[in-house]
Design a protein that fits this description.
Blueprint: E1 2-4, E2 9-10, E3 12-13, E4 21-23, E5 27-33, E6 59-65, E7 73-83, E8 86-92, E9 105-113, E10 116-118, E11 124-126, E12 130-135, E13 145-146, E14 150-151, E15 154-156, E16 167-171, E17 179-185, E18 199-200, E19 202-211, E20 220-222, E21 226-233, H1 236-254, H2 259-269, E22 271-276, E23 282-289, H3 290-294
Parallel strand pairs: 1-5, 4-6
Antiparallel strand pairs: 2-6, 3-13, 5-19, 6-17, 7-16, 7-19, 8-9, 9-10, 10-11, 12-15, 12-17, 14-15, 16-20, 17-18, 20-21, 21-23, 22-23
The structure holds calcium ion and zinc ion (ZN).
Residues 36, 132-133, 156, 158, 183 line the site of calcium ion.
Length: 302
């Protein structure tokens, strides 16, 4: 298995980033990541005194995947996520949904013990280890996208379903895909309303596989129970609409149903959900239970 250390990182997904590792399609890679503050915060005293704000949201990589060409799809199986023993949360004035109620900037260290995040002496939170930033290089025409932003290429989607056991599908825009990930969270709720999850460094095992000649426009996710579209836009309303339309378009293509019936089906059993509302673009997902789709012999890739 190939390994990538967290000292090979970038701050923007870009077609012009030099790959730091090349793998064949189908390879498993273990990728170490720094936390979203580039491991600059060691304790709560003077945490931001010498803090370099240009060094946030590093993604480890990029990884060049052989055979990946524009218009193919990159299948990313998330095999395992392990996180460090200390988590960090930050909240601040004018940051996130409650920022107008806050003064100054606060840091909280959250020890991780026995698969629990210790919030205080009264409360330990069960871990829900997930990947905040994961994506590929956007097209040359689109230009660089900083790792703090989500988009069609993936990026800072902060979707708590991007976790072990899930398979993420990303559109490929450039040769080799130039894959990277970072911004692990030991726990995060939908919305990430305070701008951080329980931020941790750690490592992720993924299998990277090129699916030839299947073109998608936005990320998709499969797990044991659900098939999900993911979309990002200027507002959460627009992101929800885009994720829902993407789901409807995929099902129109694959199920023997009219658009009226698809609207009814999505309305009866589908879930429009919020991923995050605090990044430069907002991210939503539309979740369909696989049990429902199996009634129509749905296969994502056939
Ligand atoms: Ca994030
Ligand atoms: Zn984060």
């Amino acid at each position: 298995m190939k390994k990538l250390k967290s000292d090979e990182y970038f701050f923007s997904f870009s077609a012009s980033n030099e790959p730091v590792l090349t793998v064949n399609s189908g390879s498993v890679v273990e990728i170490e990541t720094m936390d979203c503050f580039s491991n600059q915060i060691k304790d709560i005293s003077n945490a931001f005194e010498k803090f370099d704000w240009s060094k946030v949201n590093p993604a480890t990589g990029p990884i060049y995947v052989e055979e990946a060409e524009p218009l193919d799809t990159l299948k990313v199986e998330i095999l395992d996520i392990s996180v460090s023993k200390m988590g960090i949360m930050v909240s601040g004035e004018d940051e996130g949904v409650l920022g107008h109620l806050l003064k100054g900037l606060k840091v909280k260290m959250i020890p991780i013990k026995d698969d629990l995040a210790v919030f205080d002496e009264k409360l330990s939170i069960p871990l829900n280890k997930m990947i905040g930033v994961i994506g590929v290089a956007p097209s040359l025409e689109k230009g660089d996208v900083m790792c703090g932003s989500p988009g069609s290429h993936g990026g800072n989607m902060d979707n708590l379903m991007i976790t072990s056991g899930a398979t993420l599908f990303l559109p490929i825009f450039v040769k080799g895909a130039l894959f990277g990930l970072g911004d692990l969270h030991a726990a995060m709720g939908d919305g990430e309303i305070g701008v951080t999850g329980v931020e941790v460094s750690g490592s992720v095992k993924v299998r990277l596989e090129v699916v030839k000649k299947i073109k998608i426009d936005d990320p998709l996710l499969l797990n044991d129970r659900n098939f999900t579209t993911i979309a990002s836009s200027e507002t959460i309303d627009a992101a929800i609409s885009k994720a829902t339309e993407n789901m409807a378009a995929m099902l129109k293509d694959k199920l023997p149903l009219s658009m009226h019936e698809i609207a009814m089906l999505l309305s009866a059993v589908g879930h429009a959900q919020v991923c995050q509302v605090v990044d430069p673009l907002k991210t939503a997902r539309f979740v369909m239970p696989m049990d429902v789709l199996k009634a129509y012999d749905f296969e994502l890739i056939d």
